[in-house]
Amino acid sequence: MRDNTQTVMRDNTSIVIPNNSTINNSICNDKKGNNMDDINLYDITNVGVTELDRCLCFSPVKNNSINAYKKILNNIHPECMFSAETDLYYSNCRFIQLACIYNKKKFILDEIPTKTFNGISYFLPPKILIEPEFSFTLTHLIKKIKGNITIKNGATLWLKANAIITNLYLDGTLIIENKTYKKKNYDHISLPIILDQNVYIKNKGYEIVPTNHFYYNKQKKFSDHIEQNIYENIQIRGYNIIKKEALLITN
Fold first, then answer.
1. Where do the domains of the chain lie?
2. CA distance 15 to 24
3. Residue 22 banded pLDDT, cuts 50, 70, 90
4. Buried b vs exposed e over 89-114: b needs ≥16 C-beta within 10 Å?
5. Which end of the chain is more exposed for a tag (fewer CB within 10 A), N or C?
6. Which residues, at least 6 apart from 40, have a Cβ–Cβ distance to it below 8 Å?
7. Chain-centre distance for alpha carbon 181
8. Under CATH, to which class is 57-207+246-250 assigned?
9. Residue 136: which H helix or E strand, with range?
10. Is the four-CA dihedral 86, 87, 88, 94 of positive or negative sign?
11. What is the model's pTM?
């Protein structure tokens, strides 16, 4: 078991997040009961190992709030809706950081706070969503992030279109969207949205608030399936997003 906390971003930023990963040494056992330690290799053989933070490669949603809370008490990843969503946000933060490092630019992020919803305490980074239209791989992302990036806690960055971002300071909500793509005109290749050299954005943004004393009523009547989905999504998460203010950049 590793330490309960670890600093995971070291270049120009400091982020402290809980590390609730566990190690199961039995997963490598084969049918004969042998593990990887039993495999003989030549002395000249080199073995490489790649290690990733859990939230970058594996974050399932399989527990309700009660079972997730029990896992937290046992210092185990909660594997619930809240943790999976925040792991997605965090992994996107890491990818942007890698793009900045490759381009020899700065990525500045405040220390990530811990929030509690439905009794589950977990870290909550800035809400960053990267659609395939903006970047499908890290190689693409390196070509799209050209300058220094500063993202404040509570900020929301939703990249939904082909764009080039140079220097960005974000304290609020920014959405980059392609209206042409929405029209399903696949024969038309739109030029990327190129932001100004230095973009400073500060607005009220999107706020995540707890749904205290939220009671799920199975007998509740809904006007349509959309209303029912919204109701159930709030119940399973224990929080809701209040959209206060956002800047929308489009072509």
1. 57-207+246-250
2. 27
3. very low
4. bbbbbbbbbebbeeeebbbbbbebee
5. N
6. none
7. 24
8. mainly beta
9. none
10. positive
11. 0.74
